[in-house]
Amino acid sequence: MTKVAVNPVDVGKKYDQSSSMSETFNEGQVHLGYWYGEQDETSMTEASQRMTRKVVDALGLRAGEHLLDAGCGLGAPAILIAEETGARVTGITVSGVEVAEAQKRAEASGLGDLVSFQYGDYMTLPFAEGTFDAIMAIESLQCAPDTVEALAEFLRVLRPGGAISIAEYTTEAGATPEQIRRFAEHLGVEKVPTLLEYIEAVKSVGFLVEEYTQCGPRVFGVGPKYIDSAERSRDKLAAAFGEDVVAGLKDALTEFFSLGSGYAIITARKPVS
User: Fold this and answer.
1) Which of 28, 149, 234, 273 has the maximal Cβ count within 10 Å?
2) CA dihedral defined by 82, 24, 138, 58, rounded to 10 degrees?
3) Using CA atoms, how far apart are residues 113 and 177, in angstroms rounded to an integer?
4) Where are the domains of the chain?
5) ∠ CA 156-158-161 to the nearest 5 degrees?
6) Mean of pLDDT values over 233-238
7) What does the alpha-carbon distance between residue 173 and residue 197 come to, in Å, rounded to a whole number?
8) What pLDDT score was predicted for residue 3?
9) CB-based contact 5:114 (threshold 8 Å)
10) Strand ranges (DSSP E) for the chain?
């Protein structure tokens, strides 16, 4: 994979600016949801929680284990995981606003003994080798200036036998160069890798790939769900941000989901020896 000149400070500012919208629009969920097709009437927040559960189920996380949430957003997934599994979760993000809001959420949840959040760059993690039993990165690896270097850092802080699960947008086979360019532009990245490119990157640093799922049709392929959610939340969003912002959000969502993308969950393990 090519190296990309991404400044973590700029990434942090991006999420500083968007966090209030994520909080209002999707109750602090900063990633996409998972639906079982157009007839699935699950709410957007519940569908996003379903995605979190799918990633965690792939890890086989158990009570007492320690999970790193690399790119933790506003903390909602970490708190859900701690509540449902009894695992400890440490979240890290380059957004100061996200850290503050995630800490508030943890205190309000009563799970402060299991969940903690801190400011930091996952390219240079402030943890010793073998600190974590598992790592998840939901729609955060796309921000890495070098995907392979980020994965190598994840491998370092993971204990032997520990697992990692990555959920990411992928470029679909058959996408035109213009679609690929426009989609990357919307995400604010230089390139969106294919599923195979992600798998090869994971393997290249020493992980053993155990499972991968291309679930684009159930995640990115249900774009109307997000647009409908924006309409149902119109009053709440308009009160917080104004009618013009609501209209702009719906237009942006319509264009974004018209571009076409895959979506994959990849689970791998650090060798025991």
Assistant:
1) 28
2) 50
3) 48
4) 8-171+190-214+262-269
5) 120
6) 86
7) 12
8) 54
9) no
10) 66-70, 88-93, 115-119, 132-138, 158-170, 208-214, 262-269
Give the Å distances, CA to CA, from 153 to 70, 192, 203: 11, 21, 14
Residue 12: its pLDDT value, please?
79
Of the given ranges (57-71, 152-166, 214-228), which has the lowest mean pLDDT? Answer: 214-228
Measure the CA–CA gap between 213 and 168, rounded to whole angstroms.
11
Report how far residue 181's alpha carbon sits from residue 66's, in angstroms, rounded to the nearest whole number.
38
CATH of domain 8-171+190-214+262-269: 3.40.50.150
Q: How many residues does the chain have?
A: 273
Nearest C-alpha neighbor of 68 from the set 7, 5, 126: 126
Which distant-in-sequence residues (6+ apart) come within 8 Å of 131 by Cβ?
66, 68, 157, 158, 159
Residue 138 bridge partners (DSSP)? 167
Backbone angles phi, psi at 133, to 5 degrees: -85, -25
Q: Residues 68, 55, 155, CA angle at the centre, nearest 5°? A: 40
How is 132-196 classified by DSSP, letter by letter?
EEEEEEES-GGG-SSHHHHHHHHHHHEEEEEEEEEEEEEPPTT--HHHHHHHHHHHT-S----HH
Q: Is the pTM of this model over 0.85?
A: yes
Tell me: the pLDDT tens digits for 83-119?
Answer: 999 999 999 999 999 999 999 999 999 998 999 999 9
